[in-house]
Amino acid sequence: MITPEFQPALTALKEGQYTLNPTHPLQSHNPLPPPSYILIRVSFVALNPCNWKMIDFSPAIGTVGGNDFSGRVVAIGSAVRKWQIGHSVCGFSTGWIRMSGRGNGLGRLPSIAGYSPITTCSPSHNALVQSYGTIKAFDYRSASCGVAIRAFTKGKLSLILDCITSTDSMKNCYAAMGARGGRYIALESPATRNQTAH
């Protein structure tokens, strides 16, 4: 497989600032570096609070930011057994580093079939998130956001991913969760004052 020499990438310009570099050089992937690595052609990325928080803490200048991604496996190392070329995957990669990672922390996208994703966002972004498959979007700034989600899901919501992990976002998540409980996952460690609250 022929890979391009360059790609657009969000790179660290200096502490507290990054830039969109349209010609960030790609590493050589022929062959893949260690035999345990896989190569993924990224289709979608997500920008989270950590992407603007991490840039303030001594990033390695010129390195690529970003964490969440999804795409398709286009090459595998000789030692890889779990993944095959063509698999649709999503995962998490630590940003602001110089080397790409192994195939750890990946999930295969067809294992989530059957779920009905809902989300919170600014109302101005409702059409955008729905174009990506969200069946319903709620205004996270509304005081009744969590209650509205619980009503919409008829008290059956059991899987919640909190990308913000603030006091307000946690309150919304727990207000939205069904009476039987479920699994709450946060992308950051909750503030100490919140860790004993639930």
UniProtKB/TrEMBL annotation:
Pfam families: ADH_N. Residues 36-90 form the Alcohol dehydrogenase-like N-terminal domain. Gene3D superfamilies: Medium-chain alcohol dehydrogenases, catalytic domain (3.90.180.10), NAD(P)-binding Rossmann-like Domain (3.40.50.720). Signal peptide: none annotated. InterPro entries: ADH-like_N, GroES-like_sf, NAD(P)-bd_dom_sf, Trans-enoyl_RdTase-like. The keyword Oxidoreductase applies. One of its GO terms (molecular function) is nucleotide binding. Keywords: Nucleotide-binding, Oxidoreductase. It comes from the Eukaryota. Belongs to the zinc-containing alcohol dehydrogenase family. This is Alcohol dehydrogenase-like N-terminal domain-containing protein. The lineage of its organism: Eukaryota, Fungi, Dikarya, Ascomycota, Pezizomycotina.
